[in-house]
Design brief:
By secondary structure, this protein is an alpha/beta fold. It contains 7 helices and 11 strands. Strands 3-2-4-5-1-8-9 form a 7-stranded mixed beta sheet.
């Protein structure tokens, strides 16, 4: 199956263990597969991050192999059947994927149906055409903002609704997304924590325990409930400001 994706807004929901909210979705996605290749580059400590994912998934009988520990990370990508790209800082993650020349083989193998992709937070940002709707600080400078483009629209993980009682004077997440749309004509799905997208080739659904908000240029934000079919977003033709 081509473009088989599971894109999580986040790994931890308040009051619940790590990944517990999405374990059923992970089981469904994995099927009979028992080995995951894990990309830990969004965080600084690759071994401990990989070990944490292994600890969480071990009860499912899953073996987690960090691509960072392979002699040649690109070869590990070429041999993987399921790739899990973890969360952390999107700029650091993208720079590492560029450095190790992993973007093209991931794109090619996902499109060919040879590689199935799980993303969480920064890993979900990486599935978008660009990381321009990340919440992260640019702690490093990647060569460009262009990401994998496994979907043709943008995601804002960990989306927070405006708090009418807040005294914070900075921009809300909604305002920042609206600023993005002033310069770029690309839909942005603000995914609340606990939500995820499930793509099966030409179909796309929002799932999970929380909803999302869809932002488009010159259109009021639209509330999206879990279970909504969003397959029409796969026909998006993104238009980015190419000056940046």
């Amino acid at each position: 199956m081509r473009n088989d994706l599971l894109l999580l807004s986040n790994s931890v929901v308040f009051g619940r263990p790590y990944l517990e909210h999405a374990l059923d979705a992970l089981k469904e996605f994995l099927g009979n597969e028992r080995v995951i290749s894990f990309v830990p580059y969004a965080q600084a400590h690759h071994d401990s991050y990989t070990a944490r994912i292994q600890e969480v998934l071990a009860p499912l009988g899953i073996t987690v192999r960090g691509v960072h520990s392979a002699g040649h990370p690109r070869q590990a990508i070429e041999q993987a059947s399921i790739l899990y790209v973890g969360g952390g800082n999107s700029f650091r993650l993208l720079k590492a994927l560029q450095y190790h020349d992993l973007l093209d083989p991931i794109r090619r193998r996902v499109a060919a149906g040879e590689l199935r992709y799980i993303g969480s937070s920064a890993g979900t940002n990486m599935a978008c055409p660009s990381i321009r709707t990340t919440n992260d600080m640019p702690i490093v400078r990647p060569g460009s903002f262009e990401a994998l483009g496994l979907i043709p629209f943008q995601i804002n993980p960990h989306y927070l609704d405006p708090d009418p009682n807040s005294t914070h004077m900075g921009e809300t997440r909604e305002q920042r997304i609206e600023e993005f749309l002033e310069e770029n004509n690309v839909p942005v799905l603000g995914m609340r924590e606990g939500s995820w997208l499930r793509r099966r080739e030409h179909t796309l659904r929002l799932e999970g325990i929380a909803g999302a908000r869809l932002f488009m240029r010159n259109t009021p934000p639209q509330e999206i409930a879990p279970g909504t079919d969003l397959s029409w977003l796969l026909d998006t033709v993104p238009q980015f400001d190419r000056r940046a």
